[in-house]
Amino acid sequence: MLILGIDTSCDDTAASVVEDGTRIISNIVSSQTDIHKKYGGIVPELASRRHIEMIWPIVDEALKTAGAKLEDLSAIAVCHGPGLIGSLLVGCSFAKALCFSKNMPLIAVNHLEGHVFSCFLEEPRPNFPFLSLIASGGHTSLYRVDGFRRYKELGRTRDDAAGEAYDKVAKLLGLSYPGGPVIDKLAEQGNPKAIDFSRPYLPESLDFSFSGLKTAVLHYLRAEVQKSKSAEVVEIKTSELPDYCTSALVKDIAASFQACIVDVLVRKTEWAIRKEGVRSVTLSGGVSANSELRKRIKEMGEERSVEVFMPSIQLCTDNAAMIAAAGYHYFLSGNFAGMDLNPKAYLPL
Ligand code: KG4
Ligand code: ZN
């Protein structure tokens, strides 16, 4: 059974054809990074305009790559939230129009549910129940997953998401957008113990809070700039790869900031494992592409004899294969959306 997945929740226009919820036949993602990076973050209006331009070419490419026609599809699964409302509207309107014109079933998938199901697109696949850590640009949450549509939220961010913290700190350091991959690379050359940023563990809670960390980085950077005023450490500015980004200071800040984020994500996941008594953990969302997080969560799994499932890098960040994978379960349970489907910026799982 072939399902076409569509995701336009944020700044990537994505379409994918997936067979039986597990086998990727095509997976096309058109990134808008070049449009947004000069602003150091996503500009919602520009994102929706670009989605309008790209949606048809990307869906067409996904179908052509899969060697499939619209008539070969069993359904179209579209992400209807959470996300940027203007962006979501493009994907939802497009999916509705296609389904209406071809008299095809429409399926509405929550973006976070898509991230959970990204772990089913590759071998080995997790068995229920499992713990799911979703860390992305918009979300940082821990769920207990007992089955399809049986999700229990254990904790969530109270302010910034982990990816958002990466992006904001990268901006402070004058690095390019998105910040996660750049900081990940720079951190390899820095000392993670150089700066002892305090860990926001929020005792007794599985919630997260990363906005204070961003402020701590800002204060640290200001103090360093004040202290040095040297040619190497210049004013805080946002431009692409400024001179000081090669300095040891930026590398140490990147490594120390990343160590803090990873410590918190891993520790909270450990707490949740202990609390829920589950033996499997999945990691998904853009931040799960992070090399240090992947390494540390794997080590934690080995220490605790817990199985860890991480999608390969291209399935960590936003894609539509994950939407089709979750959509397959909606299809099996006969759970279809109507032509009155409206996207929602805020949509809890
Ligand atoms: O899941 P995603 O593609 O979109 C959302 O649903 O938000 O996640 C994007 C986020 C961005 O904040 C980006 O900086 C972060 O994931 N990210 C990373 C890495 N690659 C992407 N963060 C840390 N390390 C990475 N290697
Ligand atoms: Zn996402």
Provide the list of bound ligands, each named once: 5'-O-[(R)-(carboxyoxy)(hydroxy)phosphoryl]adenosine, zinc ion
Instruction: Give the C-alpha Rg.
Output: 21 Å
- Strands of the widest sheet, in order across it, are 3-2-1-4-5
Major beta-sheet overview: 5 strands, mixed
* Average predicted confidence as pLDDT: 93
Provide an overview of this structure.
The chain is an alpha/beta fold and 349 residues long. The chain has two domains: 134 residues, ATPase, nucleotide binding domain (Nucleotidyltransferase, domain 5); 184 residues, 2-Layer Sandwich (Nucleotidyltransferase, domain 5), CATH 3.30.420. 43% of the residues lie in helices and 18% in strands. The strands form two sheets. A five-stranded mixed beta sheet has the order 3-2-1-4-5, sandwiched between helices. Strand 2 and strand 3 form a beta hairpin. About 3% of the residues have low confidence. It binds 5'-O-[(R)-(carboxyoxy)(hydroxy)phosphoryl]adenosine (KG4) and zinc ion (ZN).
Blueprint of the fold:
Elements: E1 2-7, E2 12-19, E3 23-31, H1 33-36, H2 44-66, E4 75-81, H3 85-102, E5 106-110, H4 111-117, E6 130-135, E7 140-147, E8 150-156, H5 162-172, H6 179-187, H7 211-228, H8 248-276, E9 280-284, H9 291-304, E10 307-309, H10 313-316, H11 321-332
This protein binds 5'-O-[(R)-(carboxyoxy)(hydroxy)phosphoryl]adenosine and zinc ion (ZN).
5'-O-[(R)-(carboxyoxy)(hydroxy)phosphoryl]adenosine (KG4) is lined by residues 10, 136-138, 163, 166-167, 178-181, 184, 285-287, 289-290, 317-318.
